[in-house]
Each structure stands twice: as structure tokens, then as C-alpha cells.
Amino acid sequence: MTMTTKPDTPAAVTTPIQNSLTAGRLPTPAPWIILGAAIAVSAAIFGVMAVAGGSGYNWGGALLVGALLYIPSVWLFSVLVEGRRRAMDRLVTALVTGAFVLAMIPLVSLTITVVTFGLARFDAEFFTNSMRNVTGEGGGIVHAIVGTLLMTGTAALISIPIGLMTSVYLVEYGHGRLARGITFLVDVMTGIPSIVAGLFAYAVFSIFLGPGTRTGIAGAVSLAVLMIPVVVRSSEEMLRLVPNELREAAYALGVPKWLTIVKVVLPTSMAGITTGIMLSIARVIGETAPLLIAAGFTASVNYNMFDGRMQSLPVFVYTQYANQGNPPQAYLDRAWAAALTLILIVMALNLIARLVARFFAPKFGR
Amino acid sequence: MSTASTVIKAKQRPGDRVFSGSAVFAGSMILVTLAAVAIFLIVQSLPALFATSEDASILPTNFWAYVGPLIFGTVWASALALLMALPVSIGIALFISHYAPRRLASVLGYIVDLLAAVPSVVFGLWGIGVLAPAVQPLYSWLVDNLGWFPLFAGPVSGTGRTILTAAIVLAVMVLPIMTAINREVFLQTPVLHEEAALALGATRWEMIRTAVLPFGRSGIISASVLGLGRALGETMAVAMVLSASGALTFELLTSVNPSTIAANIALSFPEAYGPNVNVLIATGLILFIVTFAVNAFARWIVSRRKEFSGAN
């Protein structure tokens, strides 16, 4: 230290004193050093194994074993220096952080896989052709995009008015048994398995239009069953955020209740409601099972909601994977490219929804 | 709800009547929809409940012999998924609510929510293309070294598309909703309880064990029940990942696996005809009843908790 050369420095500064607050504790960077050492040890072991076995180096395994090695070793060091209780604390910290990292593995792996495999067929032909008369390579997803847009749009047309008015009822009008019953059933409806919604739509349309009917409108109905509860929940939450003072101010000016709702309550919460609706669309646009049951699949473009089967993006992914022809790689490539398209659409919807929530939210005092 | 019931009623204008009428109509549409789901499923499945193999060609002997293994597979796969997802989701929720830097917390929460945005069919593709080949070596190691343990009995599946893989995919898929609920409950822990624990000299883990976890217990229970409901009804990922043979077995790593109700419907429905359709819809009805009961139970726990949560 340079300080020690100065003659007038007090002696107490130069001699390291025992700080009672940091005594018996691991220094701050210690966990990182232990983590680095654990990974180095594991990397060395895997290196020896790779040389001995003659196989390629297993990076994922080395990192995983290193991380697993870190957990007991940080506990051991902590027990030796800090005692039982702090060691337990460090152990739990390592485990909790490990849980988060563990959950990130599938997300990262999935993103990388979809992007790398999906880019193989992510070209102009893919977005300008349908699968009509395509048996091998080539072909595209125009019919699936048309179907997805039509069915999701119709589902939104059905479920947004119903969902929005239900939430208005629950927040502004509902008291007593009916409101409580609806709240409970909406909660339960959120948990309906998507395939049951598909079976319901299929059952309805096959009873009225004859067995085996698969149309776009049936798919839209099944999506609406899944979408309504999500819209109700999110809009209800947003309507409850509107301050009561705004409603009371409107009533005090003599504005009727319905005009208060239309002109004051809904505009105030519009950003949040829009966000909720977009998130619900993002949720149902990826639904496969109900559309597979209710709308079926086809290779051609179909603009008619009421006649004939209709393809959709998720079902396209599934059918391309499940009914592989020759060469199989062409079908797999199409499946991955459609999966990439689907993920991009869902992510874009999510992102726009968050942006709407951020930029169009009403500005309150804080 | 804004006006007390004792005050003088406001004048009812036509606009008010139309608006409140349509609100009530929309609200009752929820009841109608749920009732319609139940009624149409019941109507369509009645012929199947007492059918035998002579009526419907997919039945081995009678309906219950067909649906039994499916129910077992559904419950078994979901239970495995829950077993894996529960500790991890509690860990993530604690990490976001109590360990991560405050500024990062909401971003990290958003990243976990991204998992929920991935469509299930993409999870299915990923499960076949990436996860199953990645875990297959681990499975054969488990069978070779721990094969005496009944769950790990051999022979090992060559593709890795076993019920354990399906359960891992299911666990990843139910993780976001369970994490979201757990996180919310942990964040609601009264700060005074936490600070009291810390002031008594508790380490962070002791604070969590004595203040956060007891407070969030019912939240954790309802999160896991809701996650169970999701896992029970999840279709495409299981249908794609699992190579099912319809056997009734607890073994995790062999190529002989029970199927689940939802996956079986998705796989068999496109080719089904005549009474077979009714049989499949009847299995769907059973799934509907089970998930309805599970979700109602979860909501009941949540609502019971609301009344005496110590938050204030």
C-alpha cells in the first residue's frame, strides 16, 4: 500500500484490524471463485473423459456437472468458515438461483432450435404458396395463414363483446349470487382443456349439420370458448383499477350510468383492455388441438368459414410433422419454418400488447 | 358497487336499460356456454358409455376397459410433471421475489412468462427434436445402473420418447402459471413479518422459512392444483412426444407407455368415424369433469384464503 510510506499516517490504518462485522464470513467474491473452480474441475474431468472415450467434448454436461458440483462445495466452505445457519442460507441461495437457470435452459434451447431449423425454409416461396398439389419439396403456408387469420378474427369478434360486457357487468352492475357464480365459472372456464373446447364445437356442429362436419366457424367457436374467460379476467382487472372518484364525478354532473361507463370508465381503462385482448389473441392463436378436431386440415386455401375444412398455422406444424412424405426433410423443414412464423407472431402480439400498456396507459398522479 | 343500496335509485333511462340488459346477457352467456359444453358433450357421449367392442371398433372390450389406462396415463404423467415443476417453480418465484435485484425482478418475471407464450405444438416439436435425443443417454445410464429400482426398469427406449420425457415437457409448460401465482403470493408477504424475522437475526433463508413460506402455503397449494389442471388437459405436446402403447405401467424409461386422454383424442380423432367418435367424446367428457373438479378445488382454496389472509 502506498499509504504506509507517509510518515503521518496513524498506525491503526496500516495494521489490518479484525472487523467484527466481517469476521467469520466468506469474502464477497468467494461464491464466484468456488463456482469457477467447480466448473474448471468438471471441465477437466470431462476433458479426460473426452480423450479417453475418443468422443467429442460435452460442453453442456461439463457446465451442468460444474453447477451441480458448486452447490455442495459452497455449502462445505460455508460450514467450515461461517457455521451451519449461514451455510444453509448459501445452499438455498444456490438452489433458488439454480432453479431459475434450470428454467431458462428449455427457453434458450427452444429459441435456438426453432430459429436454426426454421430458417431453412423461411423464404419468399414459403409465404406465397399453399400446399395444394405439393407432395415433395416446395409449398408454403398461405392457406394456413388465411385460416388462422379468419378463425382467430372470428373468435375475437365473438369473444370480445361478450367478454367485455361480462366484465362490465361484474364490475359495474353485478352483486350477489349471479355475479359470484359468473366469477367462479369464468375462473373454472379458464382451465377448460383446449381439446375439450374443440370436442364441444365439433359436437355442436355435428348435431346440427350432420356428423363429421369440420368448418372454419366450428374452429372459431372452439377458440372463442377458450378466449372469453381470458378477456373477462383481464378486462375485469382493468375496470376495477378505474378510480371511483371518476365515476362519482360523472354521476355528480348528472351523467347517466351507461354514459358514465361508455364515456369515462371504458376510455380510462382502454389501454389495459387492449393489452388483455391482444394477450388473449396471442394465447388462442397457438392452439392446435381444438382446431385439429373442429376445423380439420387441408392443403388448399379456403376463404369460406361455413364450408369445408380450414388449415391453420399450428395444425400445419402438426400435420407436416405427423404425415411426413418423401423426402421427410422437406416436411420437417416446413414444420419448423411454420413454427418459427407462429412464434414470431405470438411474440409480436405480446410485445405490442406490452407497448400499448406502457404508452397508452392513463397518467395518474404518481 | 359504487353506490350503496340504501340511497335513492337513479332514474332509469332507456340507454341504461339497454346497456345493463346487454351486460347481464353477456354475463349469462358464460353460464350458457359452460352448460352447453357440458350438455353437448354428455349428449354425444351417452351412446358410448355402455358400448362394447361390437359397437365401436376402437374398444377392446367395453368403454371402461378402454378409458381406464388412459385415465391412469393422464394422472401419472401430470403427477410426474407436477412433482418436477413444483420445487422449481417455488425456487424461481423466490428468486424473483426475494433474491434477484429489484430492478431485474420484473424483467426476469417477463422472461419466465415468455415460456407460456410458446405454442404447445412447438413444445412438441422441440420435445421430439431436441429433448428426447438429449435425455436418451441419461435414460440408458439410469437403466444400466439403477435398473433394480422398479420405476427405472428396462429395457430402455431407443428414442427417448417415454412418459418421463413427456412429463418433463409438461413440467416446462406448467412452470409459468405456477411461478406467476407463487411469485404473487410471496410478494404479498407482509413486509413487517419479514423485517421482524431479519431483525431477530434470521438469515435470508430462515426469514423465508418462517415468514414467507407459511404465509404463502395456500397460494402454493392452489398454484400446484392449477398447474395440475393445465397438465391434465395438455394435448399436443404429449401427443407428439410420447410414443404410447396404451399399457398400464409405472415404468418411466421403456418404450411401453400409457397414453393420456387428451393426446389419445388428438391422435385418434382425425381418423375416427361412427361410434368411435362418440367414444372419444366420452373420454373428453371425463377429462372435462376431472379438470373442472381440479380447477374448482383450486379456486375454492384461493377464495377461502382471501377471507383471512394476514395481509393487512
TrEMBL record, chain A:
GO terms for cellular component: plasma membrane. One of its GO terms (biological process) is phosphate ion transmembrane transport. GO terms for molecular function: phosphate transmembrane transporter activity. The keyword Cytoplasm does not apply. Residues 145-353 form the ABC transmembrane type-1 domain. Its main location: membrane. InterPro entries: MetI-like, MetI-like_sf, Phosphate_PstA, Phosphate_transprt_permease. It is a multi-pass membrane protein. PROSITE patterns: ABC_TM1 (PS50928). It is found in: Cell membrane. The chain crosses the membrane at residues 32-53, 59-80, 92-120, 140-170, 182-209, 215-232, 288-306, 335-357. Part of the binding-protein-dependent transport system for phosphate; probably responsible for the translocation of the substrate across the membrane. Belongs to the binding-protein-dependent transport system permease family. CysTW subfamily. This is Phosphate transport system permease protein PstA. The lineage of its organism: Bacteria, Bacillati, Actinomycetota, Actinomycetes, Micrococcales.
UniProtKB/TrEMBL annotation, chain B:
Signal peptide: none annotated. The chain crosses the membrane at residues 21-43, 63-96, 108-132, 163-181, 277-298. InterPro entries: MetI-like, MetI-like_sf, Phosphate_PstC, Phosphate_Transport_Permease. One of its GO terms (cellular component) is plasma membrane. Residues 71-298 form the ABC transmembrane type-1 domain. Pfam families: BPD_transp_1. It is a multi-pass membrane protein. It is found in: Cell membrane. GO terms for biological process: phosphate ion transport. The keyword Manganese does not apply. Its main location: membrane. The keyword Heme does not apply. Keywords: Cell membrane, Membrane, Phosphate transport, Transmembrane, Transmembrane helix, Transport. GO terms for molecular function: phosphate transmembrane transporter activity. Part of the binding-protein-dependent transport system for phosphate; probably responsible for the translocation of the substrate across the membrane. Belongs to the binding-protein-dependent transport system permease family. CysTW subfamily. This is Phosphate transport system permease protein.
